[in-house]
Amino acid sequence: MSEAIGRAIDALELLGMAGESVEDEWSYVTELVAAQRDRLAEIDRRRGVQALSETQTTAVDLAIEEAGRIEDPNRAIDWLSTFPDLVALALDEPVGGPVAPGA
């Protein structure tokens, strides 16, 4: 797995941990994190060994940094859908990954 996507998955997991603190949303959050983790892993598989440009690496790092600033659990839940799209955009990949569980 590429280092940048590995860091993005770590940031996704942290968002999920924050979102899990909303008791009524625990199941939704758990399923969404799993789907988005798979989505990021699929992007990594599709890209193969293709190196990231400096601009792409910076864009992923900025998205990770922004995700790390989120403290509100409800906002973290929102970002579980937004964050992977930011990473996809940074990597010139299509946005609009998996449909949210229960949607």
Q: What do you see in this structure?
A:
The chain is mostly helical and 103 residues long. It has one domain. Helices cover 70% and strands 0% of the residues. The chain has four helices and no strands. The protein has helices at residues 3-19, 26-47, 54-68, 73-90. Helix 3 (54-68) runs antiparallel to helix 4 (73-90). The longest helix is centred in the middle third of the chain and has 22 residues, at 26-47. The model has no long low-confidence stretch (mean pLDDT 91).
Secondary-structure blueprint:
Layout: H1 3-19, H2 26-47, H3 54-68, H4 73-90
- Please identify the oligomeric state: single chain
Number of spatially distinct domains? 1
| Sheet of most strands | none
> Which secondary-structure class do the elements indicate?
mainly alpha
Helix/strand order = HHHH
Separate helix tally: 4
**N-to-C span:** 30 Å
Q: Estimate percent helicity.
A: 55-70%
Poorly predicted ranges? none
Rg from Cα: 13 Å
Q: What does the overall shape look like?
A: globular
Mean pLDDT: 91
The number of distinct β-strands equals 0
Percentage of residues in DSSP E strands: under 5%
